[in-house]
Amino acid sequence: CTKMNATKLQSVEPEAQRWYSQDDKTSATDDERILDITPLPPPEHLIRFFPIRGTAMETLISQTRQRIRRIMRAEDDRLLVVIGPCSIH
User: Fold this and answer.
1) Between the chain's N and C termini, which has fewer beta carbons within 10 Å?
2) DSSP H helical segments within the chain, as ranges?
3) 3-state DSSP call for residue 20?
4) Which tens digit of pLDDT belongs to each residue from 10-37?
């Protein structure tokens, strides 16, 4: 965090304008640098508004799943590495 950003973070909106209440915090370090939250649409909405049926993306996903199955069945000698889950903390 640069000096300018640290100063900006210290002058965050007053309590009444924050998206969370101080009472909701469980420790002094909760959400210190989060200034706002933008809710994400649920997966069902994304599937409905951005269908992949019959697209190159559907083909890519299908082929990738087949490749993973082959690796897990030892029909393919490649190494499969799964990394995650990711966290913001």
Assistant:
1) C
2) 3-10, 43-49, 56-72
3) coil
4) 555 555 556 566 666 677 677 677 777 8
